[in-house]
Every structure is written in C-alpha cells, then in structure tokens.
Amino acid sequence: MTASSLLEEISDVGRDPKRGGYSRHAFDAAEIELRAWFVERAGRLGLGVETDRNGNIWAWWGTPGPDAVVTGSHLDSVPGGGAFDGPLGVASALDAVEILQNKGFRPAKPFAVVVFAEEEGGRFGVPCLGSRLLTGTIDADKARGLRDPDGVTFAEAAAKSGLDPERVGRDSERLGLIGRFLELHVEQGRGLIDLGSPIAVGNTVIAHGRWRFSFQGQGNHAGATLIGDRRDPMIPAAETVLAVRKLAKATSDARATVGRLVPVPGGTNVIASTVDLWLDARVPGTATPELVAEIAKLAEEAAGQEGCRVEVTRESYSDDVIFDDALRRDLGTWLGGPPELPTGAGHDAAILAGFVPSGMLYVRNPTGISHSPEEFSEADDVDHGARALADILEKLST
Ligand code: GLV
Ligand code: MN
Ligand code: MN
Ligand code: MN
C-alpha cells in the first residue's frame, strides 16, 4: 500500500473532537490501536516484529544484526496535533519496504523499521522518551518517575502495557545494531514551499528544552479577597508569559513558547493556589540556558512582588545537532541535489545522531503549519517521499 493510503487507513484513530486534529499519547487507547495497526501491517510484509524494553517497536526485514539500516519515526502526537508528524515517517517506511520487495530486492544488511515511543512527550513531558531511553540519554529512574497529568507514572503505564519497568533504560545491545538511522518527516515550516521543492535533506536541529515554572500563592475567594490582600500566582505567571516573548525577541533566532499553563484548582471564582506553566525554549548554539535563566530571574521578581514563590525545574534539554556529514552528502547525491534545511523541531533522529550516523528527509507541507490540525502534505508528495526513501534504503542496505 502507498504511504498516502496507509495514512488514510489510520485517519480515524485518535481524533480529538474537543481540540480538533489528533491526540495520540503513549499507551493510550489511540496509540495502542496504532501500535496494533503497525504490527499488523508489518506482519503482512513478512517483517519480524518485537517491542523493545523501552516500548519502541522494531520490525525486522530478515534477521536482526549489526550495521543495520534502520528507518522510522513515531505514531504519537501532540495534543490536538496533525495527521503527519510521526505517522508520515512510519507509513513511508512501510511503503518503502513494499516497493523494494515488489521489485525483488533483498537487503544485504540487516534492515528494520522502528516506531519510537512518546516522541512528543505529550503524556509524560519529556520528548523523544523512547529514543532517549534506548540511548541512555535520560536516566532510567527519572523516566520511571515521570508523571502524566493524571499522576500516573511512566513505570505504571509501561507495566500496564506489558513492559517490565525495571528493565527500561539504556539498551546498548540494540543500539549497537544500528548502522545508520534515517527518519522521514513532514516539514514543519515553509522551507520547501518557498524553495519549490517536494523534499529536503535535514542538516541541523537547534538546541531545545522544556522547563516547568511552578508558582505558589494563596488560594482564596474571588469576591471576598481585596486586591491588596491577594497572593495570586496567576499574576507572576502572566508576567512571565510576557517576559518570555520580550526576552526571546531580544535574542537572535530564539524561539520561546508557553503553550501550557495550569491553574489549580482552576475555578472561575477562585484565586488559584498554584499555577504551573511550561516553557519551551530553543536557541541555536549554547544560548538557551542563558535565555531561560533571564526568564527565571524575571519570574522570581514578579513572584516576590505578589508574595508568591516560584520553583523552576528543567524537564529536558538537548544540544544543537548536526546530522552525519557523509550520510547527508550521500542523500543529497542520491536525490539529485535537493535543498538542505535546518529545523527548530526535535526528532528521534537528533537523539540517535549522538550515537550513530543519522539523517533526515523532510516532505513538503503546503500549509507550513505543524503541531496543529492544519499540518498537511499532498498525497503526491507523500508518495514521492516514500519512493525516494525506498531508493535510499536500497542503496544503504546493498
Ligand atoms: C517535537 O516535535 C518538538 O520539536 O517539540
Ligand atoms: Mn512533533
Ligand atoms: Mn515528529
Ligand atoms: Mn518531534
């Protein structure tokens, strides 16, 4: 089946009527359905499927072994996300295997399609959790203790879905099998529209991280408490949101976002007792922590003025990544010189790049929008991307 028809096949799974788009999070009903779909589809291609101890699914074409050519992406989404971020790379990988099988090709090297778990961090807060665990980029104890918004830990959710939480963590043996990793992904900006090209080779991923700002004040009555008597954590939180924009604007090429803010208890006639907000900050080079430190300083001042306290916790951080030079050169040559693009988005390929030669392909997105229901890719571009991926995988695995 073509990649575009594979995507069509899962187009009803995990729709989010409240937010629009899709909400597919690690080990929830939608994501489990997508895992089953992948296992079934890979089985039909004769691939040998296994789930590793971190919840990533591997579908091997032939016998697992070293110097493997591995391709894939993820099936989870952000809350209210699009249909392409993640699934496009998985569907294209399955299509590519079928294209190669149909032409009678058999890989000389071990070959696998992988689906990484919790790439968006949409449930447990740390992005690329499956690939971070595989590579040991996150401490296993820290991962086990991560909590979803309902207070369920990653260890509990993993156990419920059949994993042994004691065994999550760096998987050197499996990591040692990967010779090269390639992730095809929908483009998450306007690069390819502006360049008039259907496909690009990824070159860099900018440094990025997430921080939780937890403001504590005094919960109280909205009518009975005079303004001067309040310790309202919403006030320093709001000032922090504005500071994020102001400081990011003053920092070259910075992107900084507050996309999630949770007042507790969250009643219209209640002054909140705590407000948590999450800062997503990304600056090329090494400046992200400095930007966050400046924001934290202003947050502390604002909290102090309101008689509140703030606690800032780093939840994840990744340095700048440059994808493997030789692989990038090969991809460029084999694809006839497509453009190279940087990205501000994080990816499992960027985590793996610290351990094995890794690369990325981006497929044109005519809306230029991502992490939103408007994210899109034309069927012709999707299938063109899958054919390009097939050509590359053939060369890599010969
Ligand atoms: C993940 O897609 C991210 O870049 O936030
Ligand atoms: Mn994403
Ligand atoms: Mn993605
Ligand atoms: Mn991502």
TrEMBL record:
The protein's UniProt keywords, in alphabetical order, are:
Hydrolase
InterPro entries reported in the protein's UniProt record? Amidase_Cbmase, Bact_exopeptidase_dim_dom, Peptidase_M20
Q: Which GO terms describe its molecular function?
A: hydrolase activity
UniProt xrefs under SUPFAM superfamilies: Bacterial exopeptidase dimerisation domain (SSF55031), Zn-dependent exopeptidases (SSF53187)
Offer one Pfam family short name for this entry.
Peptidase_M20
What family is it from? Belongs to the peptidase M20 family.
Q: Which PANTHER family match?
A: ALLANTOATE AMIDOHYDROLASE, ALLANTOATE DEIMINASE-RELATED
Task: Identify this protein by name.
Answer: Zn-dependent hydrolase
